[in-house]
Inverse folding.
């Protein structure tokens, strides 16, 4: 028989026990005093650890990230940080101070400029840019955390956690850490005698600290209807008729953005006039957008599963348990991993927007000097080839010529032909191609690949890209809705008419929409106050959305 | 303002309360007496409910499924069953008795013949065949359960659950039900004063019943090394050299099967002789196969995340916490949804086998008269287009001609050219195409699509399908390793040599493997007893694997 290796099989467990023992003087049960947190982290974390820091585009473990940025870098250094979102200043301070030197992340909106610079300056080694699901998956494979720094609303004396509406990614991060002998450290807004419900059992949690203030929570998915333009309304009308109605889209994902907020606010008005209630848009994988309230109240929506919560929606959700996923306490249970999974595999349609699209339909939000990352869009914005179940919309995409015929997910890109600053959205070559070389990435950071885009909606019309049978024809279809951008102006009227006759392009008149009908009065709510009214006063928007601005 | 609908928003909550109230006389806290379960189900379930019944290829809620098959169909009828696996006789009895009339499922190995017949006879309406992740995703979108029937090892007085090694799909099913005002009914093997750990918090559980016997648990992933043939060893050697070593595969999924068991048992012998330890096969998404023990003991494997448990491996896993995901009690924590997610997005390679492959490389396990379903294979056995992070193996698949270059997941199909009964595995047309018409399916039930297969390994050699640049060339490459099957015999030696010179095909000699070296003595274990020895007596195989057969 081959020789067996002689080794300890409990190195992770032993290391954990030793660290907790070292921190014993700081611990009262599982609790560390608020003021002791930095010292506790210096004891519980070791150099070269893989540390997963909770924080996505909504909830942030802000107390723990600040504490981590204050540890002594002679004691704690060369950490490998794993974080869904690089979004707070101290997320990068820890690299400048030498506390960490490597990062794997998913999204870096607010800090994307500074990240680019730090990589160039050699202060940060870049691992990979991921979608959420990839990053979560790697926590169980090759990025297994030594320590997790997470955020919860409440803990009880034993260390059971209540994460409530913003459960988000907490259970996934905790599971990967707790069940691999890692150390789970939770900041909580408050310690209570009895939790409204248990989201994370105490046996998964090692250390709890009451934060000096509640965790940071962004109201990122609140869109004030007053800022929706009539061009957006026109695009929304076309999308409703030319995509949602045409293909009988029953389940879908909407993200952030005024374009999709416009669609949500047209359901009870324009959608109602088309007689579509009960036929389309019944099942959602989406955050609880306030702009969904009128559609919910009008009986359009059967169910919404949420990635995260949304500030101000708590009271409304509690009174609408037929629509939302709530616990026995009545508050929302979100789950980012499960909602991404559902958004990838179980919905008919993803709709998104972009800053740049090349002539092949590929798009990216990464532009020169900005490493923004992806979040969840590429996960939901592609055709999942592992899907085997069918729905009417999915089947509608199929190419009947193929013996092994299958459907396709609807992936819609919706944007105006010109972006801010008079820059055409269409470009011969994505900035991402150059950025990948400059930043030393293995591949260009493409958000959505052209081959996955089934529909392109601009203020000009809709290109049914799934009907094109070559890359050349796809480019022509894009040009046909590209307006007066360079690619659009290259095309002749005859080419456009040819595509239109083949059903590859549709203009407003083909959808029985008059441009002059696209009025703000069509929106079911004109402003945040209208949303409050729709909600019977249950929606309580954060202060910054309440004020009128001229 | 548009008119709001007048309705109750708590219909699900009210229905649940009413049902629990009706069952009050049967409940002592959350507990129902073992003998009262059928009557309890008749009270807690209503006609037309969506009922998710736990059961996959390992753990089965067998007590509850039997109880369900005994309810009075005048009281409970027309249920819509959602089940990962249709595998026990009573799973179909409930349709014959009219208790249920519709099914959405994922896998139906043992009952695949009977399902086909029942659909034909109109006793069962077929929803869809899914992969696990799709089915789980739909639980949060458009297949939201009214009732979940699940299985756990232990419960405490409050109804907290311990699911231990076979946690599997329980948390996912429970989350979808508990947080949408559904009723969660758990069968447990025993009620205890204190749980080893909490896997499911009691506030997610409504009703608990102690089963009359432990839940059914199959040792499905135990492969006795004594049944591994020398042809399988030859294929395993080629795969190790020509795929795993060549592309530096660091993370991977292995499923059931003797082919992959052979690879596992060659790592400490042949793999060691190639100097590959520490370089390849370090991170796994896999069940705890006993045939992995020698590789673990020889220091090959850093981590294994598991879909489920495996009978007999409990004691071994408890002593190897550096490798497995375990709780504070020392026992395995599996999670089918998270492991499928990781297996889809976070590993370099999937390897599988099939009963039929067409000349385009498409394969299916569905053959005439058998609706077998898929399980997890299509989810892991495709190139996930939402992946954005890179690894050396993934990058090795890329086509450098493309400006928007990207890598690809390695999807390997490994099988002998002839199956049992002297049937060639290669066929011009998959049975699945006809089956889809006969059973009224929307699309043919293909397991793995040819466009996703990167490597095909037979006893003849390896076809590097990812290098082919047309469907015609892919077919040629398949033919080049198809031996004396019809498609193989059509090919000339000259064609083979041409593909070989292009690196599209490799034969054993190209990999420095002599067919005569493929001996059973190369296996690190010859039989189950050897595995027990490797494990220092920690592995305790179920009785049926211990006996010698001539």
């Amino acid at each position: 028989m081959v020789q067996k290796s002689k080794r300890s099989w409990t190195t992770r467990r032993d290391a954990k026990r030793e660290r907790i023992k070292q921190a014993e003087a700081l611990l009262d049960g599982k609790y560390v005093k608020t003021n002791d947190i930095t010292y506790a982290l210096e004891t519980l974390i070791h150099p070269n650890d893989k540390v997963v820091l909770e924080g996505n585009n909504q909830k942030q473990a802000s107390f723990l990230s600040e504490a981590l940025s204050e540890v002594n870098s002679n004691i704690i250094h060369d950490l490998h940080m794993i974080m869904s979102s690089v979004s707070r200043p101290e997320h990068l301070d820890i690299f400048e101070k030498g506390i960490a030197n490597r990062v794997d992340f998913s999204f870096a909106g607010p800090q994307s400029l500074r990240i680019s610079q730090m990589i160039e300056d050699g202060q940060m080694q870049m691992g990979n840019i991921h979608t959420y699901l990839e990053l979560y998956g790697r926590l169980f494979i090759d990025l297994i955390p030594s320590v997790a720094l997470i955020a919860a609303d409440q803990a009880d004396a034993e260390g059971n956690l209540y994460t409530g509406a913003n459960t988000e990614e907490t259970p996934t991060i905790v599971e990967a850490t707790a069940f691999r002998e890692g150390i789970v450290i939770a900041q909580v807004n408050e310690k209570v005698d009895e939790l409204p419900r248990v989201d994370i059992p105490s046996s998964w949690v090692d250390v709890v600290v009451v934060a000096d203030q509640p965790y940071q929570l962004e109201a990122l998915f609140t869109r004030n209807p007053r800022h929706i333009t009539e061009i957006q309304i026109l695009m929304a009308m076309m999308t409703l008729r030319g995509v949602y109605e045409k293909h009988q889209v029953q389940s879908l994902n909407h993200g952030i953005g005024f374009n999709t907020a416009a669609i949500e606010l047209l359901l009870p008005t324009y959608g109602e006039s088309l007689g579509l209630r009960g036929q389309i848009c019944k099942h959602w994988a989406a955050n609880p957008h306030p702009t969904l309230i009128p559609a919910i109240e009008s009986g359009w929506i059967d169910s919404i599963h949420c990635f995260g919560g949304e500030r101000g929606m708590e009271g409304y959700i509690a009174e609408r348990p037929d629509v939302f996923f709530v616990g026995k306490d009545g508050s929302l249970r979100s789950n980012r991993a499960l909602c991404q999974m559902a958004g990838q595999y179980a919905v008919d349609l993803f709709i998104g927007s972009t800053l740049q699209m090349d002539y092949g339909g590929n798009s990216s939000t990464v532009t020169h000097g900005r490493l923004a990352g992806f979040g969840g869009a590429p996960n939901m914005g592609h055709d999942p080839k592992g899907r085997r179940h069918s729905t009417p919309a999915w089947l509608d995409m199929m190419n009947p010529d193929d013996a092994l015929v299958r459907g396709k997910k609807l992936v819609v890109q919706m944007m105006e032909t010109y972006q801010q600053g008079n820059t055409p959205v269409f470009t011969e070559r994505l900035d991402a191609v150059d950025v990948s070389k400059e930043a030393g990435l293995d591949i260009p950071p493409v958000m959505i690949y052209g081959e996955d885009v089934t529909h392109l909606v601009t203020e000009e019309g809709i290109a049914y890209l799934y009907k094109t049978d070559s890359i050349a024809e796809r480019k022509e279809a894009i040009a046909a809705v590209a307006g007066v951008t360079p690619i659009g102006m290259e095309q002749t009227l005859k080419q456009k008419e040819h595509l239109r006759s083949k059903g590859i392009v549709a203009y407003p008149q083909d959808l029985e929409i008059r441009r002059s009908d696209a009025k703000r009065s069509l929106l079911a709510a004109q402003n945040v106050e209208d949303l409050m009214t729709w909600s019977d006063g249950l929606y309580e928007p954060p202060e910054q959305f309440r004020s009128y601005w001229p």
User: Anything to note?
Assistant: Residues 230-528 of chain B form a domain with the Glutaconate Coenzyme A-transferase fold (CATH 3.40.1080.10). Chain B is about 30% helix and 15% strand. The two ends of chain B are 82 Å apart (CA to CA).
